[in-house]
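for the writeup, i need someone to sanity check this before i put it in the appendix. the sequnce is what the collaborator sent (i think, or maybe the updated version? ugh). structure was predicted straight from it, no edits. if anything looks off just tell me and ill rerun, i have time this weekend
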Amino acid sequence: MNAHENQAGPFLEWAGGKSQLLAQYEPFFPAEPMRGYFEPFVGSGAVFRRSAIQEVGGFNLMSITEDIHTSQLLHAKGWKSVFVDKDLAVGLTAENLSSYIVQRRRWMLGCLQIFLKDNPLFCRGLGLRHRFGYFASLYYFLFPLARVVFWVTPLYFLLFHLHPIFSEVSVLLAYLLPFMLALPMASSTLLPGWPRLFWSSTYEATVAFPLFRSMFDLFLPSRMGFKVTPKGFVSQHRSFDWRTSMSLLVATGVTIAAMAKGIWEFWFFGIEKDAYFFNLSWAGFNLLTLLVGLSMAWERPQRRGRAGSPGRVRAARTGCARH
């Protein structure tokens, strides 16, 4: 069974509480039966034909995300995956920011391992649809690099008065505004009730800095070990995770300092007003996502003795088949 996860525990809990978890995921369910034909297996509840696994030599351990790589090899051999549109299993998501980053780090490093060592664009046997589907799933995890660039770009101007983009503000807005308006409108039409653009930005801004640092572990095999996502936290008091959020705190402090300097120069010198306004607005949006990300570092009391299930789980029998 294939499962699609958009945002995990800490983000959904902050957005609406655990009781609304299913409602937050629900917009994605109708598309899953169609996507099951070409989507990768991502470690969710599944049943495999023994002959399928044996044909590819068992679960492939070249990557620490062996689930995705194994499904890529199965599809390359002509096996077919099917999404079962029933509730078959209940599992735990990451429960706090630190465990969430541990999980995302493992996913990122594993996917980038496949991207570099067995890129689906050049994997013999995959169809065009599979090639693009796997490629999109893998190269997405380069987003920490893009997010850091997105954060630092307005700071070049506000801190050092350097122009990373040489263009009139009116020209930039002519290109950016239609895109920035069309994207949330399209998301709202396809996924009503889900603020995808804002939460995607918040999610990426929150995890980008620790994951960016971890990207260099790709070149240090000794640091590529498999780390299981911690589960079952029990705490009695509300606390702030200073260690996990340190990079966010530094980024937030630098952003506030840059904006304060920019506002002071804008107010007292009054030159290049359009450039100051544009970069201050850009940095302000980045600051908003960073502050929301910092709020995820507040750990709420968890007095749970054991994890529970929201309802009954039905069993079904399924499997793999040849095209």
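The chain has twelve helices and four strands. The two ends are 17 Å apart (CA to CA).
thx in advance!!
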